[in-house]
Design brief:
Strand order of the largest sheet: 1-7-8-4-3-2
Bound molecules: thiamine diphosphate
Radius of gyration: 25 Å
Shape: globular
Structural class: alpha/beta
Strand content: 5-15%
CATH class of the largest domain: Alpha Beta
Oligomer: single chain
CATH superfamily of the largest domain: Thiamin diphosphate (ThDP)-binding fold, Pyr/PP domains
Number of helices: 15
Number of strands: 8
Amino acid sequence: MLPGIIKIVIERKRQMASKAKNAQLDVKKQLETVDKQFQTLQILNEEGEVVNADAMPDLTDEQLQELMRRMVYTRILDQRSTALNRQGRLGFYAPTAGQEASQIASQFALEKDDYILPGYRDIPQLIWHGLPLHQAFLWSRGHYQGMNIPDGLNIYPPQIIIGAQYIQTAGVALGIKKNGGNTVAITYTGDGGTSQGDFYEGINFAGAYKVPAIFIVQNNRFAISTPVSVQSAARTLAQKAVAAGIPGIQVDGMDPLAVYAAVKQARERAVAGEGPTLIETLTYRYGPHTLSGDDPTRYRTKEEDTEWERKDPLIRFRKYLEGKGLWNQEMEEQVIEQAKEEIKEAIKQADAAPKQKVSDLISIMSKNLDTNLQEQLEIYKEKESK
Ligand SMILES: Cc1ncc(C[n+]2csc(CCOP(=O)(O)OP(=O)(O)O)c2C)c(N)n1
């Protein structure tokens, strides 16, 4: 009897050991499968050549020119904003140069009534969605009129708490779904944002409720000075979508056509009731994290900067359009002049805004102030009247 049982036990142990061995092998295979699954979508290479005609989005010549115009304008806006900040004429500023394809082409794929929930670096998307330039400047100065959002413009104030906008987007998108709308809510975070709990909660909720949301991760390689490789063991950030049961796509974030195509498709899926998408754009910010203090030369090499500058979205899109006879030096100069002129006017308009009072800050906080805030409001109004 006993030897028989021992035999069975030994056999069981052997089977378990062999299963465990197979499981180990499967883990390796699993990572390989994931690597194969999350390849980078590219349509235009660094030379401005079409390398993936099948994925080419359906854009007219005028739309292609408009996309270029907006990217050139935004590069100038970044340069002028940096200068204005250095002159003490702007407050908080997070540089955007290098990220134009990720930012401008993603907004370009939206419809007017779609909702944007930005992070602090996503001011260009708000402007191209309709936020007047002078208000963007006022927001930078911390003036309450900056985010006095015009009626009919579906944008939210830029989020400073990393990742929080992902949860809010899931909520806004649920609202759209419950109201039977045909719009989407799009949000942006950086690579660092994907390490936050809010990121996972947001995509999980959105996946569970199948809401019309688009989650963009602008992977610009660094969370301030921390490189992606230190932030996460994940091989791509797009694959974080898998756990939420939603599609994840990695795109070349320096390629405006790839970004546009991915967001357009995600939008179509969302309005068709097929739920959210996570899109990782591989990009780079040429400047510092913000103009409030960090020095990128302490954590990046010159070679790295040069390598990414070669991938520049404006260079490759310009080459592509020039090849089609749709862009030239004169057009570019016109856009640059127009941008400079409008920025000059907008900063004048921002300067003309009334000096901010503490009572303004309290009264815009909520429609119905509680007793405590009402008391404070009275106290400040009294002080300010003297
Ligand atoms: C919850 C939270 N933790 C920390 C910070 C401080 N902080 C500001 S920006 C930043 C890095 C964010 O990096 P990333 O998400 O990659 O975005 P990027 O600035 O590169 O666009 C951190 C940690 C914060 N604002 N919020």
